[in-house]
Structures are given as structure tokens and as C-alpha cells.
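Ops channel
N.P.: pipeline sanity check, posting one input/output pair.
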């Protein structure tokens, strides 16, 4: 895994955990900025294992809880594993695992992964009011446009039938037929515009509809010999 990707995701985890407001967060970058990596090792006498150094240093700084994580690639998917350690009790608090197709998708799942890993309440689900409204209005517009279109086609066929059989009825004046044809053309245009607008609203609503990332801990991972189901069941 590229170090730049891991560093960016680490920063995203730090920001997401800070926004949750349950902990006063000191990141590994903050510690390195304050002391420097070599000074950390000298103070603690720890090994070259950076994660163990950070954990020991966090304890020395009086931080009861230490959040560690790992990022791995499984086939075409990325797996993020987070674990919080209680340094006073010397045991894990909780663990959270998430899989996604790319880093951006992992970032979307961070609030839920952090809630699991830190044993804190899940974030409130995103509002569905706007996308549902767009879907409802768009669907109604499509139906209305379809009804108008069918009616316009029916009127157009009736007008054509009337003009094609001049001997079977009484002729109307030419302006009457022209007005009728113009009205039908206008109705067809309105129907088409209504259907297109409704379809656009439905599409936007579907795009804006929030994904249930809280339950996306399982994914189908492409492997060399097929596919594998990996992750954590909700």
C-alpha cells in the first residue's frame, strides 16, 4: 500500500475521530511533530516497530486509549481495520473493519468504523428527505407526462382519421383544424418536457440517496480464482 495513501487515510481517521467529539485526539503526526521520531525512541527505548512506539508513548503522555489501524489490499478492494486499546487495562476495547473499492469510499465509512472501534454510539443516519422528495416528484412528473403524451397521440390519431375520411362527416373550418393541430403539438411538447424533467429528478434523487454505509462491512472481492466474500457482518 503506498505510504501516501496510508498517510492520507490516517489524517482522515484523525479528523473523523475529532469531529465525533468523544475523545481529545492526539495523532501520531502530532507526537512526531512535538518530539521527532528518533527522540521518541530514545525516550521510550522502544523497537523499530513504529506502532508499538506510538502506543508506549501514548501511555507515557497519559493517554488511556490508543487507536491503531491497518490498511490492506484484498483483490481489488481495500480493507481498513481499526482497534482501540485501553492502556490501563491492557486489553482491546473494540474493533471495526470496513472494506471498500477505493479510499474515498473508505472515508465515507469512517464514522461508522470509528463508532465500532471505539465502542461509541453510531452517527445519526443521513437525511433522506430531499432525495425521497425528488424521487416522488420526479416519478409523478414522469407519470403525468406519459398520460399527457398518450392523450396527445390519441387526439392526433382522431384528427388524422377525421381528415382522411372527408365523405363520412361534416368538414370543420380550416382554422379549427389548425388550432387543433397546434394544440396537439403543444401538448406533445409539454408531455416530452415533463417526462424528461421527471426522469432528471428521479436520477438526481437516486444519486443523492444516501448509501447505508453502516451496513457495508461485507464486500465481494475479486480473486485470482473467482470471488470471495470478505468483511464484517452487520
Amino acid at each position: 500500500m503506498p505510504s501516501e495513501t496510508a498517510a492520507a487515510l490516517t489524517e482522515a481517521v484523525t479528523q473523523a475521530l475529532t469531529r465525533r467529539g468523544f475523545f481529545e485526539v492526539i495523532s501520531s503526526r502530532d507526537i512526531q511533530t512535538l518530539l521527532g521520531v528518533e527522540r521518541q525512541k530514545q525516550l521510550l527505548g522502544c523497537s523499530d516497530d513504529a506502532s508499538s512506539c506510538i502506543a508506549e508513548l501514548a501511555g507515557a503522555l497519559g493517554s488511556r486509549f490508543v487507536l491503531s489501524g491497518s490498511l490492506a489490499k484484498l483483490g481489488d478492494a481495500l480493507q481498513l481495520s481499526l482497534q482501540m486499546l485501553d492502556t490501563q487495562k491492557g486489553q482491546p476495547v473494540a474493533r471495526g473493519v470496513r472494506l471498500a473499492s477505493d479510499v474515498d469510499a473508505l472515508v465515507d465509512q469512517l464514522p461508522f468504523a470509528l463508532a465500532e472501534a471505539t465502542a461509541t454510539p453510531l452517527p445519526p443516519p443521513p437525511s433522506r428527505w430531499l432525495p425521497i422528495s425528488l424521487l416522488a416528484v420526479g416519478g409523478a412528473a414522469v407519470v403525468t407526462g406519459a398520460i399527457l403524451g398518450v392523450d396527445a397521440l390519441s387526439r392526433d390519431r382522431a384528427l388524422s382519421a377525421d381528415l382522411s375520411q372527408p365523405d363520412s362527416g361534416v368538414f370543420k373550418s380550416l382554422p379549427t383544424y389548425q388550432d387543433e393541430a397546434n394544440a396537439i403539438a403543444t401538448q406533445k411538447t409539454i408531455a416530452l418536457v415533463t417526462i424528461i424533467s421527471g426522469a432528471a429528478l428521479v436520477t438526481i434523487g437516486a444519486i443523492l440517496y444516501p448509501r447505508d454505509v453502516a451496513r457495508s462491512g461485507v464486500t465481494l472481492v475479486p480473486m485470482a480464482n473467482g470471488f470471495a466474500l470478505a468483511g464484517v457482518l452487520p
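N.P.: looks fine end to end. Residues 2 and 71 are 10 Å apart (CA to CA).
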